Amino acid sequence: MxxxxxxxxxxxxxxxxxxxxxxxxxxxxxxxNILYFEPLMVDMERRxxxxxxxxxxx
Length: 58
Hints:
Blueprint: E1 4-14, E2 18-27, H1 37-48
Antiparallel strand pairs: 1-2
């Protein structure tokens, strides 16, 4: 079985709709991979149609 890690999470509130969380599972790695987060943010902005008010890159 492949081990997966929940490493990409974006949460936002959409007026008149509610709160949403977009999360992705990727293979576990032992070092921070900042290159992963830029495509996640681009995809999240495309899905929501706007940029989030806040973001955190860990």
